[in-house]
Amino acid sequence: MQGKSSKLGRLSIQLGLGIFAFWTLAPIAWLVVSSLMQQQALTATPPDFSPSAFTFQNYVEVMNSAAALGRGLANSLIVAVSTTAVALAVGAPAAYALARFQLPGSGPILLMILATQMFPGIVVAIPMFIVMSHLGLIDSRLGLVIVYLSFNLPIVIWILHGFFLAIPVGLERAAAVDGATTLQIFRLIVLPISWPPIFATAIFAFIESWNEFFFALILTRQNAQTVPLVISQFAGQYQTVFGQMMAAATMAVTPVVVIAIIFRQSIMKGFTEGMIKS
Amino acid sequence: MAKVELAGVYKRFGALEVCSNVNLAVADKEFVTLLGSSGCGKTTILNMIAGLEDVSAGEIRMEGRVVNNLTPFERDVAMVFQNYALYPHMTVAENIGFTLRLRRISRAEIEKRVGTIAGLLELTPLLGRLPSQLSGGQQQRVAIGRAMVREPKTFLFDEPFSNLDAALRVRMRSEIKLLHQRLGVTSIFVTHDQEEALSISDRVAVINEGRVEQVGTPEEIYVRPVSRYVARFIGSPQIDLLDGAIVEETGGTGFRVGHVLFSLPQPLVHALRAQGALELGVRPENVLITDRGTAANVRVVNPVGPASFVTLAWEGGLITARVPGMSRLKAGEAVQFTVDPQHLMFFDKASGRRIEVSGEL
User: Fold this and answer.
1) Which of A112, A105, A102 is nearest to A182 (CA)?
2) Are B25 and B73 in a shared domain?
């Protein structure tokens, strides 16, 4: 009886996971497949999946417009890496201070940080545009980095805050008795044992910045355009070149997917440790 | 040379007062244990001595100097934590040497001193391992080594044996005592285990609800507890407390519980006569199973090897007797018992204080 029910339980878990995996992977699979299809075959109803419909032409076309895509990739990389680096450099000490020091008002501060996440982007878009144009930061990578920090920093602080809270306080007390200053405790004890969640948070912030579309759309013209914008331009006024768009998108998501696959264990470890460590 | 004194120390967390008027003087080279149940404030006291917790009021002095505002490091204390608090990303050698590294001592000197400590604690083959690759006992020794390496003036121990299995815990008692004899460093040890406290300490401070209930040698604490709380906390199985009254009648003089009269020597009765309601405290070793005395029934027999504890049901409730060896008594068996009048304790029922009677011992 026991065996039967546990077998059934396992089966339903596997089924659930299967549905979830399909839900997640199907769009990516469709992305890759459609990037390899000719326009007519793709837009036919139903789509024409005969071998003759498949081609690498889309990738060739995209590579021919490599200037735009190359600049987009470079911009995305610079913006995402800078955002991630600054978010961690500022966010990790902030999260630690909020987790460990009896700061007056640390509760409200944390709530405020969380509250910033509740505004839909569109609400702040116009004020943000005005501020940025006054600062002369329209169409600049620095402008994008500042805007991306405004939503990545709170996430970094919240995730790391939870993790730092979970570190046994005894470790830091031991270090204090050993003669370490607060800064030394943070640098020599807390950071080295926190690298899995820090790493996971970094990947998260990187992907967030890499994929961001909305603010990049309103705050850039040409020089600072990131990859998602470049991709969107394959949709022209009279015709959307689906195959090329998909090919460009495939090329854009590849680095992120590769990073996620390579570091998947660290990412999972980082997030789960923060949740279960006692 | 490290004398540690606490004078009128208070600790409050908001409205909650966790330590009240703590006074304690630990002499140089002395081994003092703070003993109390969990949540009594003993670890808070230790943390205040260490400098990990601020003092709300009062003074902590070391070698006569007020240290209230000094960091743990400036107080020159070393601490062994309950869960050892070993740095998980450092090897055994790095853990022990961390404090020396912070003080910018040369690499060669660190290696030498870590090596010496490791030899002393039999950790030499483990120096390259991470804490996660060590057994509980080994982690314990690393934690002690980390405290020893800096040759502090005072050692603080926060329930360092509580995560060890029973056999190792008992062995560590001797080891820590030997270490203390060898190093002669003032040591303050926190535990909730009364047997541990009695077996390792020069003196024991019993802490109850954030106050020092009694400070004394293990013998004083056990034989002359100041209060019912201390009497009940020390000793295993617990002391039995009997409700009754002093009587002087034609049938005899003594302490009457229900219909049963425990006869007491005349001078003792005289001394106790003036007191109000009393409780009589009897430890198991002072209950004697004999062939004449108060009738009782054996309820449970708990042999523990060298002795057995026999719980007896009688008119006054339950009472535990310690009998030598493995007892042959069976549950339900009818027996009789007496109490040894030389070792009785009397407590004022209202205040819980023990009534000191001269010549009682």
Assistant:
1) A102
2) yes
- What confidence tens digit (pLDDT) does each residue in B182-217 have? 889 999 999 999 999 999 999 999 999 999 999 999
CATH number, domain with residue B25? 3.40.50.300
Domains of chain A with bracketed CATH: 65-276 (1.10.3720.10)
Q: Which of B226, B258, B277 is the last residue of a domain?
A: B226
Residue B288 sits in the same domain as residue B199: no
pLDDT tier at B70 (50, 70, 90 boundaries)?
very high
Residues 106-145, chain A: which have Cβ within 8 Å of B? none
> Are B106 and B214 contained in the same domain?
yes
- Whether the CB of A171 is below 8 Å from some CB of chain B: the reply is yes
Q: Which amino acid belongs to residue A173?
A: R
CA B135, B140, B141 angle in degrees (round to 5)? Answer: 100
Do B114 and B256 belong together in one domain? no
Inspect the interface and report whether the beta carbons of A176 and B78 lie closer than 8 Å.
no
Q: Give the range of the structural domain holding residue B213, as residue numbers without chain letter.
A: 4-226
Alpha-helix runs per DSSP H in chain A: 2-35, 39-43, 57-64, 66-100, 106-115, 121-134, 141-166, 169-177, 182-184, 191-193, 195-211, 214-219, 227-232, 242-262, 264-276
If asked whether residues B185 and B286 sit together in one domain, one would say: no
CATH of the domain at B328: 2.40.50.140
Interface test with B, best of A102, A167, A178, A181 (most B CBs within 10 A): A178
In total, the C-beta contacts within 8 angstroms joining chain A to chain B are 57
Do B81 and A178 count as a contact with CB atoms less than 8 A apart?
no
- Give the pair of three-digit tokens for residue B329: 């008594």
Say whether A168 and B98 touch across the interface (CB within 8 A): no
Q: What is d(CA B72, CA B347) in angstroms, rounded to the nearest whole number?
A: 42
Contact A115, A157 (CB under 8 A): no
- Domain assignment present for B290: yes
C-beta neighbour count of B198 within 10 angstroms = 18
In chain B, residues with a C-beta closer than 8 Å to the C-beta of A192 are 89
Q: Does A183 touch chain B (CB under 8 A)?
A: no
Environment class of residue B333 by beta-carbon count within 10 Å: exposed (0-12), middle (13-18) or buried (19+)?
Answer: middle
- Answer whether residue B356 is part of any domain: no
| B205 belongs to a structural domain | yes
Q: Which residues of B touch A174 (CB under 8 A)?
A: 79, 81, 85-87, 146
- B263 lies in the same domain as B207: no
Query: Are B277 and B166 within one domain?
Result: no
B26 domain-assigned: yes
Give per-residue burial for A237-259: e unless 16+ CB within 10 Å, then b.
eeeebbbbbbbbbbbbbebbeee
Q: Answer yes or no: do B329 and B215 share one domain.
A: no
Round to whole Å and give the CA distance between B188 and B221: 17
Task: Kindly state whether A184 is in contact with chain B, defined as any CB-CB distance less than 8 angstroms.
Answer: yes
Q: Into how many domains does chain B fold?
A: 2
Instruction: Tell me the ipTM for this assembly.
Output: 0.78
* Residues B211-260: tens digit of each pLDDT: 999 999 999 999 999 999 999 999 989 999 999 888 887 777 888 888 88
Cβ of B89 under 8 Å from any chain A Cβ?
yes
